[in-house]
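Fold it.
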Amino acid sequence: MALLLPSLVTGICLFLTYHIYRYLHYFYLARSNGCLPPKHFPHKDPFLGLDFFLETGKIFSENRYLPELLARYNIYGPTFQTNLFGTPSVNTIEPENLQAVYSSNSKDWGIEPLRLPAQDPFCGRGFITTDGAAWEHSRALLKPGFNRANIVAGLEGLGKALDKMMDKIPSDGGTVDLQALFFDLVSAPTPISLTTHVPLLKNWMLTYLDTSTEFLFGESFGALSNSTSKESQAFMKAFNHAMFGSGFRIALGPFKFLYQNAKWREACKTTHAFADKYVQKALGYRQSVFSGSSLINDKDNINMDESRFPSR
């Protein structure tokens, strides 16, 4: 009991010292860069900001996120600060701020502390989740696939996918539903009549999946056609669920450990297994190129060329 009071006082002193140091650090940093303090969101819960988190979740579920986000910026200005589970979070659409974060002062900012712990089971360590040397290494591996020849070749596939998507939009002047579709991630397309309300964003999602898989894997799994394989449909559902879970874990911040969803982790494994098949095919192709042998048939080689993969 005699040691309890000194320990409590020490803890309080350390807590106050840390917050005073952080405040002074950010104050002088902002002053040296000519920055004014951002306007604060009027939280009902000033400690964890649960009101903001719950309100955001509500407008997400009601498909009102984009108009509400715009309304917030109209009310609080192009830059304002919120409380995300006790952590200050700056929201901005100010061009100079965005340029500093993503370009001119990008090395002073990072994504790894936020994204990697939340997305590791889904994305692993790559250019989406890391900073520094790990990011540079991952980017170097991906860069050869985006050479001019591959991009030009991909335009043909993009055109075909867009034609398929346009065929699914009614031509009789009927209504195309753009509301309540931003989270319509049902991946298995179905035939429609000309009077059916069409989930347009869903078709854009399928177009993205078609073109992305053709560009990255060398072949499209035909998400926009009605002959999509069960394996491809399972991948799309798993991919969408894994993406949603990763985003939710990021939103939870320091409380991401509360989201231990077995279905989400299984979706991550399904996504990895689907991609691994193409990784093994690519490795086999590289081996055949360097050895001069033919380890995979000509049909598999059609959309795979050496420029997609870095050299040894």
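Residues 116 and 124 are 7 Å apart (CA to CA).
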